[in-house]
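Recall that a protein's primary structure is simply its ordered list of amino acids. Everything else, from secondary elements to tertiary packing, is in principle encoded there. The following example makes that idea concrete.
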Amino acid sequence: MTLIDTRDGFAATLRTLGAELGVSFPEEELTARLGPPLDLLLGDHLDAERIPGAVDRFREIYPGAAIEPTPTLPGAAEALAAVRREHGRVLLVTGKYTRNAQLHVDHLGLDVDVVAGEVWSTLKADALLEHGASIYVGDHVHDVEGARAAGALSVSVLTGGCTAEELRAAGTDVVLDDLTAFPAWLDEHLLGLRLAALEERLRALGRVMVAFSGGADSAFLLAAAVRALGAENVAAATADSDSLPASERDPARTFAESLGVRVLTPATHEMEREGYRANDGDRCAFCKSELLDVLGPLAAAEGYDVVATGTNADDARAGFRPGIAAAASRGAVTPLLDAGLTKAQVREASRRWSLPTWDKPAAACLSSRVAYGIEITPARLARVERAEAAVRALVPQARDVRVRDLGDTARVEIDRALIEQVDQTVLAAVRQTGFDHAEVDPLGFRSGSMNALLAEPEQFR
């Protein structure tokens, strides 16, 4: 990427070099042409035999003259952060001397994985290919040449010496005014690519039964499958289970029926699995095993080729997700994950498609509220559901509510901005649902917080 403004530092170094060599270099002209290798820039002003020594001396002077005063360009930090949000890596490919380029990166604290210096034009393609770069951002026509030689998408910014017309004539794919426009462009670019990949993946699957909980991910997958395959080739299967809150069932059915798909509600019996009731850290594996052991044969009997879950790309990176592995071992497919769609992208695409679930709060199963090591029972799950309904009734503006069952104690998690509203009246209402004690979590709601309890003292498990 073009991340820093080296013009002043370059000019200062050039002045010092010129004084030592007794040469008056045209600073304004040369700083306007930054990009090409230094020996090419100096070629019109020094005899050929003097150039290698001048280049070496320039590199020696540069750290003291150019590192400290060189700033980042507007939007540089935000551009790098945008790549990180998408779990990408950052490769800095530059014509600059590698050591000096690294000094800039270190001094400015730029979030860069690899610095590949001293390469120019199509030679940049070697570094781009070596590190698997799919997008190359530059500001010079020769950056465009490097991107095209590597088969990477060329994104050009107008912060260098080349005009938009020159960059387009060189074959760039995208022209941005500067790096401040890059995050929005990247978001749109990746969303478009991933939605296209999702459609292609779904078309290849044939007839699809979606494991449909009614949440944002499975709702989006169901809608995407209908778009790709037609409603007649899609079914929504919502498990009739004690772990699915009753309040979720009717909205789920209404949504699925609005898409014109067939709705199936097979009973699942995860409570009959000892590993599920025991509620150790691998509980989700037993739940997903039960779900797929029911849906797999049902799909085959009803003429559907695959069972698809709403697992997204963020889920796969979340670490402790034994249920994902269990579903995969039973043949479930994950089209959202395969397309690389993140939770944020699922919500954004759902919003654009006018799906009512686009901003629906996360709604994990009721068993996820119970601390590991405490037995899962229908009565315990019903108690949690009553407690959460009580909190929502008293704090109706809450978006995210969880009542964590720690045994005799209920720990209430709610949107952080609303924590102070969980007063003694709310805690009393929670106790009335069957808990001896109730407390509010001062950290507020956070998805997956029960995993942290695996490391807490025994009395919480």
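Confidence is low (pLDDT under 50) at residues 455-461. Residues 182-205 form the longest helix (24 residues).
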